[in-house]
Amino acid sequence: MKAPLIVVACLWTAASACTGTKGASTSERELRADIVNPAGVSMGTVKFSIGNDGHAGTDVTVEADIKGLLPAGTFHGMHIHANNDPAGGGGCIAPTFASAGGHLSAAGDVHGKHMGDLPMLLARVDGTARYHFVTDRFRLADLTGAVVIVHALADNYNNVPRGSNPDEYTANSPAAVTLTDDTGNSGDRIGCGTIK
Predict the structure, then answer these.
(1) Which of 10, 41, 82, 134 has the most Cβ atoms closer than 10 angstroms to its Cβ?
(2) pLDDT digits (tens, 9 = 90+) for 135-183
């Protein structure tokens, strides 16, 4: 007689979360994106994991190790893109990486509140940048198949004091407002990696 098949389901809710358990496979506890530039040259990796550093439950640890950022001393936006528009081709299609679509976000959210908005990278003198942080903004389950994009410019996080006063920014067109609301004016997509 065959042993019964046991299926364990794990649902994410506001009140409970699945955590990594002793003996869990790496794929259940860690995802990564291998970042390449438009020429296909490696720029490094971004890792997403649960259960590290004593953080359990809903927390995800993000570790980025990126190279090839120029010029030195500049900030570069980095976001998780939804990769959910089949019309764009999906994934990391060079040279523009537009195939990754827009930021991972809930409908109606503007930039700065997107689930996929991440802290900026700061290029060191050798063009490398590293960071490590913990967030509860997304779950590991939200990320599979999404894409990490590294941008050419700094991210303004939509923190622009718009208005008509002399000390406020007046947009030069509706397109400029839309660009800030959607992307934080982070510029071209210079690095891309699908999260697996």
Answers:
(1) 82
(2) 998 999 999 999 999 999 999 887 776 777 887 777 777 887 777 777 8
Specify the pTM.
Answer: 0.78
A 10 A CB-CB count for 188 gives: 13
**Out of 36-40, 57-61, 135-139, which region has the weakest mean confidence (pLDDT)?**
57-61
CATH number at residue 84: 2.60.40.200
Work out how many domains the chain is built from and give that number: 1
In a domain, 95, yes or no: yes
The answer to whether 36 touches 92, Cβ cutoff 8 Å, is: yes
